[in-house]
Design brief:
Structural class: alpha/beta
Strand content: 15-25%
Pfam families: cobW (PF02492), CobW_C (PF07683)
Order of helices and strands: EHEHEHEHHEHHEHEHEHEEEEEHE
Helix content: 25-40%
Bound molecules: guanosine-5'-triphosphate
Catalytic activity: GTP + H2O = GDP + phosphate + H(+)
GO molecular function: hydrolase activity; nucleotide binding
GO cellular component, one term: cytoplasm
Number of domains: 2
Largest sheet: 7 strands, antiparallel
Number of helices: 11
CATH superfamily of the largest domain: P-loop containing nucleotide triphosphate hydrolases
Organism: Methylomonas denitrificans
CATH architecture of the largest domain: 3-Layer(aba) Sandwich
Length: 316
């Protein structure tokens, strides 16, 4: 299971893990109503289930057991086994407990699947602040078998030290690895076994999330400079509430669709999309917000203006 806060590098790690050629079934959980992650997978030719529009720990928790049962049935009945392992990528705001509760306590599943390893990604520049602010981020660290510290190339010594101080308190004994620019040593991650006896979650109901998502479709292709300016301004105006931007858009100067990503204050350069699961020729952007999303929705509407259809902005 891969977990870790918004934008910390789960999908990047997933792509690295999938590159080893082992047949893998993937279950991706996305908080946003409009899923993006499946388009970001380098390999599209695998058993893939996307559970979107909420977290596996709450809104879509009920979908996990049936999904895993269906995948197991397909595996069991196939002559040529379609996969040898499964990777579950949780949403960035999911608490791992209810997911582990399903995996470890559901008798049918626990008798057929073995939970090998829980990996939690933490982006060094932003993780200490996220751990201070969000119980979900602390739970992701608490349940990890391995902590993978990412974005080392964008971090400085102070950020590293601040995170180390927090981890010494939250998970002093959990092994850690550091990665630079997505250069994960995946072979050593995959051969690791989790604990032979696992702590079983208490199963208590969790407090409700404070997170919401906004999704929109772009009807026109903006030049990158225009889109970049809009996104920079939105990130600057909403430093506390706008946690993540993710999407696939068409740009005026580019034939192929481009992947757009921002996490915290960091806007990443757009990357051409290699292949796309479903292509309707329209750009899609998802914004994950902490707290009331109405102020951001208003700003999105005026910032994107003519690029949008009326009623194109959806709050969830
Ligand atoms: N510079 C740098 N960028 C990275 C690193 N790891 C990931 N990224 C970039 O960070 C952005 C977010 O990475 P993802 O792998 O999509 O993060 P995620 O945890 O899957 O995000 P969510 O699923 O939305 O929570 C992408 O633009 C990645 O290319 C890293 O170590 N260094």
């Amino acid at each position: 299971m891969l977990t870790g806060f918004l934008g910390s590098g789960k999908t990047t790690l997933l792509n690295r893990l999938l590159a080893d050629g082992v047949n893998t079934a993937v279950v991706i959980n996305e908080f946003g109503e409009m899923p993006i992650d499946q388009d970001l997978l380098a390999s599209q030719d695998l058993p893939l289930t996307v559970l979107s529009g909420g977290c596996l720990c709450c809104k879509v928790k009920g979908a996990l057991a049936p999904t895993l049962k269906n995948l197991w049935m397909a595996w069991d009945q196939a002559k040529d086994k379609p996969f040898e392992r499964m990777i579950i990528e949780t949403s960035g705001v999911a608490s791992p407990e209810p997911i582990l509760d399903t995996l470890l306590r559901e008798r049918w599943l626990a008798g057929r699947y073995h939970l090998q390893h829980v990996i939690t990604t933490l982006a060094i520049p932003s993780a200490a602040a996220q751990l201070d602010s969000f119980a979900e981020a602390r739970a992701q660290v608490a349940w990890a078998d391995t902590l993978l510290l990412t974005h080392a190339d964008l971090s400085n010594a102070d950020q590293h030290a601040a995170l180390e101080t927090r981890l010494q308190v939250l998970a002093p004994a959990t092994p850690r690895q550091t990665a630079t620019a997505g250069d994960f040593r995946t072979a050593s991650l995959l051969t690791k076994e989790g604990p032979s006896l696992r702590r079983v979650p208490a199963g208590d109901p969790l407090p409700a999330h404070s997170f919401r998502s906004i999704s929109l479709h772009l009807e026109r292709a903006p030049p990158w400079q225009h889109l970049q300016t809009i996104l920079h301004e939105l990130l600057a105006c909403h430093p506390q509430d706008l946690l993540r931007v993710k999407g696939v858009v068409y740009l005026a100067e580019q034939a192929e669709p481009m992947v757009i990503q921002a996490a915290g204050a960091q806007l990443y350069p757009p990357v051409p999309l290699v292949s796309r699961a479903a292509d309707d020729g329209r750009g899609r952007l998802v914004f994950i917000v902490n707290g009331d999303p109405t102020a951001l929705a208003k700003d999105l509407s005026s910032a994107f203006g003519l690029l949008l259809n009326p009623n194109a902005i959806k709050l969830h």
